[in-house]
């Protein structure tokens, strides 16, 4: 089953459940009234997850704006970091529910929350051509274990909202590795070194989407 049909079935199941049952916010457990069709979390949690802190525009480091000293001294191989918020309550709980507790319908809600930030950045700094939206790929083993690529479930609705091309095959995972969450900073770097390849040359800017940005 491809991602589009999977997303359609998930939306239909979510609508059916919402008409019958009261759902609760994944951030704070506040119960929603049946039929309200909430996006997964309450307005208070949505406001709480949005980052209001000054950050380096390149790497996203907190407290150093517009660019941190490490990025000025040695610019990384990417131009900009855009994020929804800090991996702290309630956003960490929302992401864990989405990623580990088999709640893939939260992908569309995360995309809806992230879209205004990305749209504003693209409007302020338009490039020579429109970017393509590319999710971080999973290894075949991890995809079979989880049943879905959480990054793709954010990237597809994000691309649709921004009216940008969605290119899930632009990158592929060349080798499997342990989960980043269980590794230290140096081991994380080694774990992803040369782990992704582009089967075809990419001539457009790339908007790379992941659920969590680690070290």
Features:
4 strands; two-stranded parallel ribbon; globular; single chain; 40% helix; 8 helices; two-stranded antiparallel ribbon; 6% strand; mainly alpha; 215 residues
What features would you describe in this structure?
40% of the residues lie in helices and 6% in strands. It has eight helices and four strands. The mean pLDDT is 83. It is globular. The longest helix has 19 residues, at 106-124. With 215 residues, it is mainly alpha-helical. The protein has helices spanning 3-20, 43-49, 69-73, 91-100, 106-124, 140-146, 150-162, 185-192, and strands spanning 132-135, 172-173, 196-197, 206-209. Helix 5 packs across helix 7 (150-162).
- Strand content of the residues, in percent? 5-15%
The best one-word shape is globular
Derived structural class: mainly alpha
Low-confidence segments, given as residue ranges, are none
What is the element string, with H for helices and E for strands?
Answer: HHHHHEHHEHEE
Helix count equals: 8
Overall pLDDT confidence: 83
Main beta-sheet annotation: 2 strands, parallel
Total strands: the figure is 4
Estimate percent helicity. Answer: 40-55%
Please give the alpha-carbon distance between the first and last residues.
33 Å
Alpha-carbon Rg, integer? 18 Å
Strand order of the largest sheet: 1-4
């Amino acid at each position: 089953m491809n991602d589009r049909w999977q997303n359609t079935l998930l939306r239909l199941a979510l609508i059916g459940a919402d008409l019958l049952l009261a759902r609760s916010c994944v951030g704070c457990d506040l119960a929603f009234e049946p039929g309200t069709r909430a996006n997964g979390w309450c307005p208070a949690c949505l406001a709480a997850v949005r980052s209001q802190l000054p950050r380096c525009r390149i790497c996203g480091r907190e407290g150093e704006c517009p660019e941190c000293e490490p990025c000025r001294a040695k610019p990384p191989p990417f131009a900009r970091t855009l994020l929804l918020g800090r991996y702290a309550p309630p956003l960490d709980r929302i992401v864990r529910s989405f990623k580990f507790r088999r709640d893939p319908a939260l992908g569309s809600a995360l995309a809806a929350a992230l879209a205004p930030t990305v749209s504003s950045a693209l409007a302020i700094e338009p490039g020579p051509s429109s970017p393509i939206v590319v999710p971080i790929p999973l290894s075949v083993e991890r995809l079979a274990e989880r049943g879905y690529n959480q990054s793709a479930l954010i990237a597809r609705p994000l691309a649709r909202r921004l009216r940008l091309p969605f290119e899930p095959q632009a990158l592929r995972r060349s080798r499997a590795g342990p989960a980043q969450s269980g590794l230290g900073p140096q081991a994380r770097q080694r774990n992803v070194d040369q782990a992704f390849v582009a089967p075809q040359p990419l001539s457009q800017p790339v908007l790379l989407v992941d659920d969590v940005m680690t070290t």
